[in-house]
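Bug report

Summary: structure tokens for Purine nucleosidase differ between web form and batch submission.
Environment: batch mode, default settings.
Steps: 1) Submit the sequence below via batch. 2) Compare with the web form result.

Sequence submitted:
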Amino acid sequence: MASEETLIVDCDTGIDDALALLYLLGDPGVRIGAVTTVFGNTDPGTAALNTLRVLELVGRSDIPVAVGAEHNRRGSRHLAPDVHGADGLGNTDLPAPRTSPIAEPAAELIVRMARENPGTVHLLAVGPLTNLAAALQLEPELPRLVKHVTIMGGAMLHPGNVTPVAEANISNDPEAARIVLRAGWPVTLVPLDATMTEAITEEQRRRLAEFGSPVTTFTAAILDLYLDFYAQHAFGERKAACHDPLAAAIAVGDVEPLLAPVVPVDVETGDGPARGMTIADLRGQYRGFPESGAAAVRVVLETDRAFGDRLVDRLCSDVPNLGAA
Ligand code: BDR
Ligand code: CA
């Protein structure tokens, strides 16, 4: 990660969101300026409490957590208790955190921090894009103030995980996704094409449990339900996709994508069966219809499929924050 860079993580914490935060917190070279929460895996208040729990676990309650959008731009929402548990953390029913979210709303915090740190804020969005779209509405200059935006979302050649064609973060607020992609700032999109090939397995979960630090005991516990869900609905065995931690690792430059073309990407916002679909123009010919308004986005299509081990190595490391056993 560039030394002058400050991350704002916008998330719907969530099991893999928690893993993403811990992955980042395990690197003393990564500066997280704030975490903002949004509805998605759970409601934004619960996501904030889960974030505070994670921060407390690693002694980083100094990082402010701001609550954001309760629902999408149409006033609806779809939560995912079947994937992430009723509490968002795999039904582990952890005690309430000692700290509370700040009063400032998420979108306002994003705008304020971007104004205070022009050119150095990197937005890492791993939930629905409602907060980012709201921030763009509050400050039209935001694309000039922010250094980069990395988003976990979309499905290009891979099927969707909510509908046959739509991925959860985009499907939860397609209108916001379109606003964010078209805002004219540099965007890296990390879709299911990459994240579904980067798995964490039952064997790796056992390694975390056996390591026995507070962080690895926590991660092994929250992964239990997540692995069940993916075994039943996706992989037929106990392993799960590393969606949000992979996007985090790409954002800070730990994972160098093997294939990441810069291509026009648009989002379907109609009400038909393709609602929430991300359409990347991956054709070698006939490419780019300037009149379509689609934004040029760096789309990560392939990584080296070794991230599960890197994630577990990081969580089992002796970085002081992660509290080795
Ligand atoms: C995305 O949706 C959420 O359930 C995960 O946390 C991830 O951000 C995957 O589609
Ligand atoms: Ca997420």
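Above is the batch result. After comparison, the two runs are identical; trailing whitespace caused the diff. The mean pLDDT is 95. Residues 11-12, 14, 16-17, 40-41, 126-127, 244 surround calcium ion (ligand 2) (CB under 6 Å).
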